[in-house]
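Final paragraph of the annual report: two paired records, presented back to back.
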Amino acid sequence: MMQFLEKLLEFIFLPSCGVCGKIGEGYLCEKCEKEIEKYRLNHTLNYSKNNIILRDNSNTKNNISDKNKASNMNDTNINQSVSSIDLIKKMHILEYKDIVRKLIIQYKFNDKSYLYKTFVKIILSDKKAFDFIKSYDIIIPVPIHKRRYKTRGYNQSELISKELAHMCQVKCYTDVLSKMVNNQVQSTLNKNERLENVKDVYKLIKPEKINNKNVLIFDDIYTTGSTVMSCAKELEKAHVEKIGILTLAKD
């Protein structure tokens, strides 16, 4: 029913580009799509148990910044282990800078929840990202605390995850992982503080829903990886088959 209403509204009110506002070319116009492509990474990394990079499968149309290269190579001690998961694949779609950074900030903090449609269009416009998502059974968005949800009105990662699940015909569960602590915002902390800030924050609620499944964690921004790796450690308690991580942008 909800999907029908959405289609009806799109028919009555033509969707506009989330970047420039142009009407009639969907949620991302051709001109803005070309601009966004300059920041595309589709950067796939394979991590071992202790989060050390084993192989870099970058697919960039422009060179990754030195900052990102350094971040990738130093991204080794985020978590000590994910006990029985031998390999965690991560895909980062865009570089978090310039117009990408501006859009994500507007989406999260300026009450522009409708931008999730634009971000989904960006993610799925590359077949590699589509195939990566399809290799998993379930998408689980990184949860936010109920107080933050009440203030913001939505979970930015959940909106994107649900649409990705619908488009890729996989499941999206929002009741498996819960954020129990309304901790400090990660962006205000340094790397070591971020690690401490996410300890014992997330709790596995319904392990039976993901037991022996391939699970993909989705988050909007990846900086040190402390948030998504904390979620991965908790989800691993359900004896999942495989865990992957997809992020919209890498800082």
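The closing record of the year follows.
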Amino acid sequence: MLPRLGYFLFRHAVLFYGHGKNRKLLIGPLALFLYVRILMNLAPIKLLELIQPAVEGLGYEFVGAEFVGQGKESVLRVYIDSENGILVGDCSKVSHQISGVLDVEDPISGQYTLEVSSPGLERPLFSLEHFKRFKGSVVKLELRQATLEGQRKFTGDILEVNKGIICLHVDEEEVEIPFSLIKKARIIVNK
């Protein structure tokens, strides 16, 4: 059932955006991508468009960002990486740069805490490209809703990533999970 649902969402996802006469409709993979970003508590696209160039302009890889919580408890967490690894000084430099951009653009209303860190050994996976890059690695993921069998959490080896479907080797079985159903995912070093 899951592969059919994932294919349906990928091919037929619909998203409305804008207001009044400017209201527009997206259909297909782009609508799915935007919908998944909304569901995964990832930072809004406008925020990513501000952060990514600031990080990459300093010579670091922008891994991803999350915006979680509400009010004073809100946290904007930005993950960066580099071929040489990430040190505290790198995080400080990127944090200062991002703070400057966010102060000027002011895309977040209210108070929040900015955290910049390396993804670490048990790095989060934010995109299909991340799953492809770490094919063969053990991943722990949580779905937004339970499968028909009632399962929400999976731990297994990434076997394949194809057309928005992630194939995992879980307990001697192959399980296909649509990327759109994943709430969060992380590499596991010691299974």
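The radius of gyration is 18 Å. This concludes the annual technical report; the extension proposal builds directly on these records.
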